[in-house]
Amino acid sequence: LSAFRFxLSAFRFxLSAFRFxLSAFRFMxxxxxxxxxYNEAQRLPPYLDAIRRYGEGVFADRYExxxxxxxxxxxxDEVLRHAAEGFARLRTIRHPKNRGKxxxxxxxxxxxxxxxxxxxxxxGATPIEEERRLRSLIxxxxxxxxxxxxxxxxxxxxxxxxxxxxxxxxxxxxxxxxRVSVSDPQCGFKMFRREVAQELFSRSREDGYYFDLELLILxxxxxxxxxxxxxxxxxxxxxxxxxxxxxxxxxxxxxxxxGLRR
Length: 262
Known about the structure:
Blueprint: E1 31-37, H1 44-59, E2 63-70, H2 76-85, E3 90-95, H3 101-111, E4 116-120, H4 131-139, E5 144-148, E6 157-158, H5 161-177, E7 189-193, H6 194-203, H7 211-221, E8 226-230, E9 233-234, H8 243-258
Parallel strand pairs: 1-2, 1-4, 2-3, 5-8, 6-9
Antiparallel strand pairs: 4-7, 5-7
Helix pairs in contact: 3-6
């Protein structure tokens, strides 16, 4: 029998033979929700609660929420630490100083691990359940899906009349001056395939309010297909949007973005 004995070492394999890179598990996460937040200590917690309930019901543990605290001074960092104690899928990233919404979304999107990457505004103006509408477009072949408050559909858009008029005028200007094809380029509810998000955000440079326009222009230049879906949206109390500030930065941003079209 000794002639048939083999040393155990003959059957040993190094553990490295069974190791897989972390990237192999990347797509175990189905959805990454990226939320840029600046001084949202009051409005963000209810939205996080809604996302947690929805995410656990739809995705179990195969989703993540990434909140990028863009240099808040209202105690948001402490609020997020408390929220994370009972929310295992929550990740937080903090900018030491305020850099702008575009910079915050970029930080979160580049850190996302999900198959689909959604960014949503911290005020919860769009219920998280509306992600289904965008995800269905991605699953049907779109590279990025844009929520729209201007497309008619079986949804309710509650928006102050002045904001509605300003939004419509801005969208028309973007379509005319920058040849942006979507109807509501500034809606803060957009979804990307992960690889598309990685490429677009790695190329983007706009840190402020007009980063959406840059993403849409870059997507078209790179041949990505965008699709739109009507979404439910309700204006939330406490909005700090300053029309004068928005208009003040518009022309500089438009000049920079027109350069992408050349």
